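ok, trying the design again with the full structure, not the truncated one.
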């Protein structure tokens, strides 16, 4: 009996040590991955806080320089940063809100309702997602010009109010996270389509909506081609188009360009941190309930 107990204790100790080593290895890999992911942002700060000569220096400097505030001041003097920032914020916020509403509404119908040609319509929707966005630039601009929206923020917001990726993503999530029993209970209580969507579906969609909101906001914020084409008034451009003016053909000051890029990235980091926190919190809450 004593020998068996010693053998069992030794085996348990070995298993415990192995599990601790495994956890330590996983944490080490995660920390390494986080450092690799964060290094580009750190390198952006290094370049934005130096000079163009520092950027070309070899070996490169790995410590931030003293010129960050000066470079940011020069960006503000060169382009209308706050005016273009306001245009971008309005387009990104309103565009994201419309995408979240229409995509989740369409996904709810595709996932939980039967109607004629449902599969055909969903297949056609997926085909539109496969078409490169560049092919639609000319007809989309002609349409905006016909509506009289060329040069206004409506041309940045309305055309992207719904998209195939968002509908597909929300439909897949709705099929797995929205039980039919909840909808049947709501119908027994007399709830119609919009009440079922608003009071039952949307609260369960929050993790998927958080991801889609982050993805859509960043996409609209970083969009360059479509605002460049449709915003024909130079005084109403978005942030990415305005910052492109820093990159001149000859004698480009790359420290100025990097400072502008850093200033445009900071709001995105804040949005990501806020959205990711809600996304992870809702996922954890759902896992706990399960």
């Amino acid at each position: 009996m004593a020998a068996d107990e010693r053998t069992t204790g030794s085996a348990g100790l070995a298993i415990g040590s192995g599990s601790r080593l495994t956890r330590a290895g996983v944490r080490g890999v995660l920390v390494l991955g986080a450092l690799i992911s964060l290094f580009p942002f750190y390198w952006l700060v290094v370049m934005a806080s130096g000079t163009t000569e520092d950027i070309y220096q070899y070996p490169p400097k790995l410590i931030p320089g003293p010129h960050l505030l000066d470079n940011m001041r020069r960006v503000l003097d060169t382009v209308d940063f706050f005016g273009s920032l306001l245009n971008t914020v309005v387009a990104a916020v309103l565009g994201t809100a419309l995408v979240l509403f229409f995509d989740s509404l369409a996904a709810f119908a595709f996932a939980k309702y039967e109607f004629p040609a449902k599969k055909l319509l969903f297949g056609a929707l997926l085909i539109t997602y496969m078409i490169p966005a560049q092919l639609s630039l000319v007809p989309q601009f002609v349409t905006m010009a016909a509506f009289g929206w060329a040069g206004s923020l409506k041309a940045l917001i309305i055309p992207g109010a719904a998209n195939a990726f968002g509908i597909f993503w929300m439909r897949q999530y709705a099929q797995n996270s929205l039980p039919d029993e909840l909808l049947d209970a709501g119908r027994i209580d007399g709830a119609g389509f919009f009440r079922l969507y608003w009071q039952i579906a949307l609260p369960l969609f929050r993790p998927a909506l958080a991801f889609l909101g982050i993805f859509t906001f960043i996409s609209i914020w970083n969009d360059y081609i479509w605002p460049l084409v449709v915003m024909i008034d130079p005084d109403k451009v978005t942030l990415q188009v305005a910052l492109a003016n820093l990159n001149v053909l000859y004698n480009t000051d790359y420290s100025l360009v990097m400072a502008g890029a850093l200033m445009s990235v900071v709001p995105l980091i804040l949005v990501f941190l806020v959205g990711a926190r809600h996304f992870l919190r809702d996922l954890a809450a759902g896992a706990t309930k399960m």
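Keeping the full-length input from now on. The two ends are 42 Å apart (CA to CA).
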